[in-house]
Amino acid sequence: MVAKYYHDSDRGLYDPSQTSEEFFKESSTGTALVENINALNSAKTQGIHLTGETKLKSVTHVKTDLAKDPKSSPPTIPYVQFMVCYDVSSVNVVDKDGKSVVPASRKPTGLRLLGVVNYEYPNPDGWRVGYVQPKRDKC
């Protein structure tokens, strides 16, 4: 699911005018979904699109908790956490004229903690990336 999330996050911005918000629901939910939808709407408004693909350098399991109590406050939802090192050196964001809008200061790699959640557990098809927390600019 981590690889699918990064793939979909990129692919959804290749041609923003042809991407619906629903597209991202195959791999994300919660704040991760909101972030993808915000990026899509921003790309549409600014007339920009993405080229290239994010590469995963490493995906390391951090923690698993399969406890489920959706009626508790806050609800307890099964999750698996991963520390992800990614590389965006081949990713570009360009305007309608093909000019890059990526700041020269962008770091080529980053480290993030991803939470993959399943509101439908034990259904194995319910896993989605629910949140993404930046950790460092490089890994």
Write a brief caption for the model.
This protein has helices at 2-11, 30-46, and strands at 49-51, 55-65, 79-87, 92-94, 109-118, 127-136.
Provide a descriptive summary of the structure in words:
With 139 residues, the protein is α+β, with helices and mostly antiparallel strands. The chain has a single domain, classed as Nuclear Transport Factor 2, Chain: A (Roll), CATH 3.10.450. It is built from 2 helices and 6 strands, in the order ααββββββ. A 4-stranded antiparallel beta sheet has the order 2-3-5-6. The radius of gyration is 16 Å and the shape is globular. It starts with a helix and ends with a strand. The model has no long low-confidence stretch (mean pLDDT 97).
Keywords:
6 strands; 139 residues; globular; 33% strand
Overall mean pLDDT stands at 97
SS class: alpha+beta
Determine and state the CATH class. Answer: Alpha Beta
Biggest sheet, open or closed, and with what strands and sense?
4 strands, antiparallel
Helix content class: 10-25%
What would the principal axes of the Cα set say about the shape?
Answer: globular
CATH architectural category: Roll
